[in-house]
Amino acid sequence: MVSTGTVAILASVMVYTLMIIGAFVRASGFGLACPDWPTCRGQVIPEFTTPVIAEYTHRIAAALSTLLVLTTMVLAIRRHRKSRVALFATLSFGLIIAQVLLGMLTVLSGLDPIIGTAHLALATAVFGSTVVTAVLARKITVVS
């Protein structure tokens, strides 16, 4: 059986990877390669060009991050219901859902700088909360 801490570490690594991909998309100017949301150019699987690959990779990484954060929360609630692990795992999930919505608004606003800045700031909070969840869950695993 995989531990909550292990899944939380994977979630943290995936969120950090997502942030790196997002920084690349932003710096390269590929942020509007998929100008609609949740599809890309009206397709679930678009025609791939370099800009689309970059933006689509960011979206796939976001989906994987969300699934890992959700899995962490479910495990934390089942295994550590009355601990800070469950609290931070739930916080992480709430933050990543808000992050997905800000990502959508970033695209639909045409990369509005204020929304984009909020998207980056919230990404940092998501990463921080997933790291705290991982540290707390690993501490419980090691002590138990």
Structural notes for this entry:
This protein is mainly alpha-helical and 144 residues long. The protein has one domain. The protein has 4 helices and no strands. The chain has helices at 4-28, 50-79, 84-108, 113-143. It is elongated, with a radius of gyration of 16 Å.
Q: What are the key terms here?
A:
about 140 residues, mainly alpha, about 75% helix
Query: Residue-averaged pLDDT, rounded?
Result: 95
Tally of contiguous helical segments: 4
Q: What structural class do the secondary elements suggest?
A: mainly alpha
Instruction: Please mark out the parts with pLDDT under 50 across 5 or more consecutive residues, or reply none.
Output: none
Gyration radius (Cα, Å) is 16 Å
* Helical content class: over 70%
Note the beta-strand portion. under 5%
Sheet having the most strands: none
What's the N-to-C terminus distance?
15 Å
Count of β-strands? 0
Number of domains: 1
Q: Give the overall silhouette.
A: elongated
Compressed to H and E, one letter per element, the order equals HHHH
Sum this structure up briefly.
With 144 residues, this protein is mostly helical.
Write the layout of secondary structure elements.
Blueprint: H1 4-28, H2 50-79, H3 84-108, H4 113-143
